[in-house]
Amino acid sequence: MKTSITPRAREFITQTWQTQANLSFFLVLLAVTVFVLPSLEIKRPHVAFYANVVYSLVLASGAAIGWGRPRLFAFAACAAGPTIVLRWVEWLAPGDTLHVWSEAFSLASVIAIAFVLLAQVFREGPINAMRVQGAVAAYLLIGVAYAYAYQIDTHFNPAAIASREVKVTTFMDWIYYSFCTLSTLGYGDIVPTSRLSRSLAIAEAISGQLYLAILIARLVAMQVSDPSSPNHSG
Questions:
Q1: Residue 183 burial (CB < 10 Å; 0-12/13-18/19+)?
Q2: What pLDDT does 25 receive?
Q3: DSSP strands (E only) in the chain
């Protein structure tokens, strides 16, 4: 019995550690994307290069989160792989059409990785730090996804977003506007003017609030129903 339990326990610990390490690395990269890069004074010709480097690492580490679950990993890898290739091809040979496809694939990849994260967060088991990190990362991915949606919208309608200060042109500007909307902060320096951009802004503000409410309710329910939890009601 001892020889049969030990390999299982070792495999479980290894998979848990790997997922925890991948998730921590992924969360750090997201924090760099959302909080650090926008604050740096990077010269315009180099912005796309550094953004692609960070985003490639984000996608690779995001796909690796599902490593212990083959279907989730395959799903995330199929979304992340072509996106990384397309973004670097677009960087080497810039073009309007290729740029739109790159942003569209990036949006799809962010949504796919968010799905993988939430699948890991809400899987059976005790509530631990890994789940909390995954929930925070998924929340940040919502803001990143909407940033891509705004950028795609303004590509087809340059007047979709109005700014009282400098013109919104870089992805870092969209990150700022997206998280102001997601958190319902709304400084008013950047405002949606088209029907689609207004609909996106409303959807983002509502989804940001619903996410927090549903997440807390779900995690509390999981904690209470977990047999190993001291608060288990059964």
A1: middle
A2: 83
A3: 161-163, 190-192
CA distances from 6 to 13, 15, 69 (A): 11, 14, 21
Q: What is the pLDDT of residue 211?
A: 92
DSSP 65: T
CA 99/CA 105 separation, integer angstroms: 10
Q: What are phi and psi of 189, to 5 degrees?
A: -75, -25
Short-list 70, 69, 83, CA closest to 111: 83
**C-alpha to C-alpha distance for 74 and 43, rounded to whole angstroms:** 37
Give residue-wise pLDDT tens across range 112-159: 999 988 888 887 777 777 788 888 999 999 999 999 999 999 999 998
Specify the pTM: 0.84
Q: Would the pLDDT of 59 be above 80? A: yes
Task: Please state, in angstroms and as integers, the Cα–Cα distance from residue 124 to each residue in 9, 24, 221, 223, following that order.
Answer: 17, 20, 12, 10
State which amino acid sits at residue 69. R
Q: Which domains does the chain have, with CATH numbers?
A: 2-225 (1.10.287.70)
